[in-house]
Predict the 3D structure of the following.
Amino acid sequence: MILNAFDLHDKVAIVTGCNTGLGQGMAVGLAQAGCHIVGVNRSDASETRTLIESLGRRFLGLRADLGNTDELPAIIDSAVSEFGRIDILVNNAGIIRRNDAIDFSAKDWDDVMNVNLRTTFFMSQAVARQFIAQRSGGKIINIASMLSYQGGIRVPSYTASKSGVLGITRLMANEWAHENINVNAIAPGYMATNNTQDLRTDEQRNQEILERIPAARWGQPDDLMGPVVFLASRASDYVSGHTLAVDGGWLAR
Ligand code: NAP
């Protein structure tokens, strides 16, 4: 029956950057659907651990700075030695730097590109190699943005990285679909997390953004639970290379 296709009981999901925000919301959503979670964080993730374990699911907490790719092999090894397999990867960890394009520094370019795009690619590659070794197929879900479609303002490296995420989601999907690996992305709209704290405290920007969102509210981490469970489950087996906007209608305006 169709609802069984959404069941993720005992699947193993790696979620990067799940100590807070959208990553925490998606980790809890996946655990509610049955997953055990491998959380990859540079900060303490004990709040997420408590939320996952209270659902009766296991949580393996790993610490890594995803600004470089040195620690990726150890992440895969730890996940496989704890659970024996990996089924799902959510590349969520991401950062943003704001400054006028005319003044933007090389450091703000590289820092953002490294976490948001370089690590997303090499983490996906490492997990896809594991899926192929397991002969299991698997699900990769990248976190894109409205700036995968639009130019934005004062966030050049973020726009470059998130536009790149949309592109490599398609590329990886094209190369790995025949291995039963689904690569898709979620493009959140304007969501109430640390990432948008500056925008929400600027009264004028906050008002401008709210007026443009047909749903007339900021998104919440819980709004990503349904989409991530869908893309992580058998229910989406023929969805490949797609970036799903979850934006309260922002792009429809
Ligand atoms: P957030 O609350 O700032 O969370 C970002 C997460 O990424 C945190 O867990 C953070 O860990 C982690 N992270 C950042 N740099 C890292 C690094 N070098 N190594 C390991 N972890 C790192 O923001 P969010 O809004 O939930 O963002 C989650 C994702 O959604 C990002 O990819 C973001 O670009 C994307 N997104 C957000 C929005 C929005 O409106 N909020 C819209 C579109 C897309 P720390 O806590 O240790 O920094």
Remarks:
- The two ends are 36 Å apart (CA to CA).
- The CA atoms of residues 98 and 193 lie 16 Å apart.
- The chain has one domain: 2-193+221-246.
- The chain has eight helices and seven strands.
